[in-house]
Amino acid sequence: MTASRAWSVAGLAFAVSFGAGACLMLSPALAADDDAAQILKSMSNYLASAKTISATFDSDIEVITPEMEKIQFTSSGTLLLDRPNEIRATRTGGYVDVEMLFDGKTLVVYGKNTNGYVKMDLAGSVDHLIDSLCERGRALPGADLLLSNVYDTLIGDITDAKHIGRGVVGGVECGHLAFRQHDTDWQLWVELGEKPMPRKLVITSKTIAAAPQYSLVVRDWKTDVPVDAAAFTFNPPKGAKEVDEAALADLDELPPSAPAKGQ
User: Fold this and answer.
1) What is the tens place of the pLDDT at every residue in 32-47?
2) Which of 14, 85, 140, 143 is the least buried, fewest Cβ under 10 Å from its Cβ?
3) DSSP string, 34-89
4) The pTM is what?
């Protein structure tokens, strides 16, 4: 699996995280390292065991201008996941206000700032949704953490894994992990104790000058929350119009004048 696939995914920018992995034979280089991989696996198993999950998050993405100036754009969002095939997420930033709903049959992406929505037939699980969006180029770093087998997805291309130590994110004590791949380095802060939930993720691109980063801080984690089935049904607001899939290009977290992500 390539590094780009390992940190791509799910629809327009909703990054938050879970997954499970079977007991694996790690490469000698990884097995000889410390317990970073095992902590990652414990996190994945814990989140995969939850039928429903809700969370809120803040994210930052950096771009590099032609003058080599690093500019950061920020947004916040929410997530509601009901395994195996329903998800609702929102993201609000300075240049976009978007909502995504998937009921196991149809994906709807609604741009509140444009009052337009896109509908796509994508019957299947959330995993299938994520893979389909990746193939369409509608991906964003971090959303692979929504997969039901995130450990297998991420561990395959790891060349180095370290348990750096401890840190505190939002008042929660976490284990600080660092992983290396060919194209990216990424760090993960996992809550200590009986609920090893991811609290922070930072991905650094090594193939682009000035090494831009994507960061995600997750707040208000709740597992096995009550879910209303209507939460995943889209009811078009007054005046909303269905638009072509190409309109998704206008639902970006960057302003139109910004350089391409990381460029």
Assistant:
1) 346 999 999 999 999 8
2) 85
3) -THHHHHHHHHHHHHT-SEEEEEEEEEEEEE-TT--EEEEEEEEEEEEETTTEEEE
4) 0.81
